[in-house]
Amino acid sequence: MPDKKDSDEQLLQCKNRWLLVCRARGTPAPDPGLVTPFLSSLPAAQQAELDHALLLCLNGREKHRELAL
Hints:
The mean pLDDT is 83. By secondary structure, the protein is mostly helical. It has three helices and no strands. It has helices at 4-25, 32-41, 44-58.
């Protein structure tokens, strides 16, 4: 079971990626104060899937509609 520190770091990393993707695409970013509670409410598998999709977006390698997942 991952410890709290690792979990918090993963949430912060995912939040930062989400905001960077929005900035890079010129799309409105969600309220930063709401992103962490939203991410915390996702099951671990969905958090990981979202983080992976965001990473692909940052690298310009996302598949069509990757973020829709």
